[in-house]
Amino acid sequence: MRILEIVSGVTACGATVHTLQIAAELHRRGNAITLMGKPGAWVLKQARARGVPTLESRMKRLPLRDLLGAARFVREQEIEVLLAHMSGANNFAVWLSRLAKVPAVLRAHAHTIHFHWRMAHHIIAVSEQTRRYHITHNLVPPSRISTVHGFVDPARLVVPDKGVRHAVRAELGLSPSDFVVGVIGNILPRKGQIYLVRALPQVVARYPQVHVLLVGVTHPLRYGEQIRREAERLGVSRHLLWLGERKDVPRLLQAIDLYALPTLNDMLPMALLEAMWAQRPILATYAGGIPEAITDGVEGWLVRPRDPDALARAMIEIIENPDERTRRAQNAHQRVLESFSVQTQVAKIEAILQQVAEQFRR
Questions:
Q1: In CATH, what number does 154-339 get?
Q2: What pTM did the predictor assign?
């Protein structure tokens, strides 16, 4: 199948990493795929290194130069279907679809109200909760939206260095006996990191060896300042390590004892699936698509969002029950292998693209 995959993100994030993995797997499966991105985008450099053809575009709708250039490429290469990720690319793709007379499939990574969802020939939601959102809020007909959950690429997560856990802790000034909680993902209000900070006083009063790694870009900056002030007020600042954006998440996963996601609203975060594959115990919330991957008591611990007391109780239970941590972490790893691998999920995406292209030709 001849596919033009389009993504508007410039830096590395969950959506762009998934885009790259989809492109590489579709390429491996024998499809003639080209990945379009903005000039200098991280994902284009990575795609070229994997042998995936690329195309640069600013993706501006006006003036029409970018749309006309992309439409010419679609016709010359006899592209059969477009696959777009992220708002800018989704918007560009639906207009390109009209101009080049080729169907557009959009991948829904987020909850947004926008006209482009209604203009798409089909939508792929990353969770059932996301699918329901777009049916309800964007009035997408149920027949034009499918769920294909997110996934992980194990090859990206393998860390060959067996001493990495000790090495990372030494780099961060942590001891082997510290209980380390990793909060991996950009530091945003909807991610709820502040509620974990509010849970810490109860936890460190009993277990002062607990430390929390905050990994990711802070946006807006005032949210990070709010968290710092709250930690200072509660007397837990010394238990927080602000690591910022990191390129070595697989190494960090090996160094932590617990992955925590106190989010208020999420689809199905890639960082969560990666922690599951890495056999880290999981503490998360009943938010978004998370319960579609984690069952409380089976693959991890789930609590209500915005509930510091529930987070504290769960963290104490997790610290005090190492055998249960191991059991649920092993279950989480098996769940990812069975339901959230790049091979199984991209095969589903490929089938949807094929069906949409065939229907469009009729």
A1: 3.40.50.2000
A2: 0.90
